[in-house]
Design a protein that fits this description.
Immunoglobulin-like; 7-stranded mixed β-sheet; binds calcium ion; 4-stranded antiparallel β-sheet; 2 domains; disordered N terminus; alpha+beta
């Protein structure tokens, strides 16, 4: 029981002992009827922490409390996500569980911008945390697989990694294998994994050179991010595939001196009249310019 209390107080914050005891007493009866040990339900109201590491959990109650590896659990999701759309994360495994803490981090390991959709009254955002963490809010046996939706914040860029801890039963917790989802940014032409994956000096220049007909070294020379995942051939084939979506002025032609320049300028921060100055599209109305801006913004 001591270990369970320590685990509780660490994983679920500084649980006030009194509250914990009250909850445990109340849950013991439920657990018995559910055929579960009382301790697996020791966190009836969910985690008051936003995330937890394996070491924190192990130090809370001894190694026997945490399964090795992924403990038979896994998180999964589609390989890529599009802006302004939810990412469905599935928790699967070999056992049902009672407690869950699920959270999202960005490429730097910091709490990601974004929010989980609370699927039912059985879940909530842990106290003092952003909506990038979700935990259980009620006692229940949760059968796998379970799905949760995460919507990245509007300002978020780059990959997202989802992590979780599940509490199966007394002395039995696990860290499911994590899953990383890449942004499907069309304009991340070099396919790099940095925290700012779309820039004028790399991807903008690559688009411009591609539309000018450059290939091979002339295409990529000094224009790829350090962590670029595509070489010259891969970049050319990639842009062949997404070429139609580069028609940002919507004239049904994809050209360097219009679309390529507009994209490069936009990535350099130019907006409004400055975006279209000197181009054939300079006669566009402010509304039409705004449409171009929106079309480029949707590409990354
Ligand atoms: Ca890039
Ligand atoms: Ca065009």
């Amino acid at each position: 029981m001591v270990n369970v209390v320590r685990l509780t107080e660490t994983l679920f914050g500084v649980a006030r002992r009194r509250v914990f005891d009250r909850g445990l007493r109340r849950l013991a009866a439920l657990a018995t009827s559910a055929g579960l040990s009382a301790a697996c339900l020791a966190f009836p109201n969910g985690a008051p922490v936003c995330s937890v590491t394996r070491d924190q959990l192990i130090n809370a109650g001894g190694h026997t409390l945490v399964r090795a590896g992924n403990g038979g659990f896994a998180l999964s999701a589609a390989q890529t996500y599009a802006r302004n759309s939810a990412i469905t994360v599935t928790v699967s495994g070999n056992d049902a569980f009672s407690g869950l803490l699920l959270w999202a981090v960005d490429a730097t390991g910091q709490t990601a911008q974004g929010a989980w959709t609370i699927p039912s009254a059985g879940y909530r955002t842990p106290g003092g945390c952003t909506s990038a963490s979700i935990t259980h809010a009620s006692v229940a046996v949760r059968n796998v697989p379970l799905q949760f939706d995460f919507t990245p914040g509007a300002a978020h860029r780059g990959p997202l990694t989802f992590k979780a801890t599940v509490v199966v039963s007394r002395f039995d917790a696990a860290f499911p294998s994590e899953v990383t989802v890449q942004s499907s940014e069309i304009l991340n032409v070099d396919g790099d994994r940095s925290t700012r994956p779309v820039t004028a000096a790399t991807d903008g220049l690559l688009v411009l050179r591609y539309l000018l007909g450059f290939r091979g070294d002339a295409l990529i020379g000094a224009a790829r991010a350090a962590s670029a995942s595509r070489d010259a051939n891969a970049i050319a084939s990639y842009l062949d595939g997404v070429r139609a979506s580069l028609d940002v002025d919507s004239d049904n032609v994809v050209a360097a001196h219009t679309d390529g320049l507009l994209i490069h300028r936009y990535l350099n921060g130019l907006r409004g009249a400055a975006l279209v100055a000197g181009l054939a599209s300079a006669t566009l109305s402010p509304q039409q310019i705004a449409q171009i801006e929106a079309k480029i913004a949707a590409l990354f």
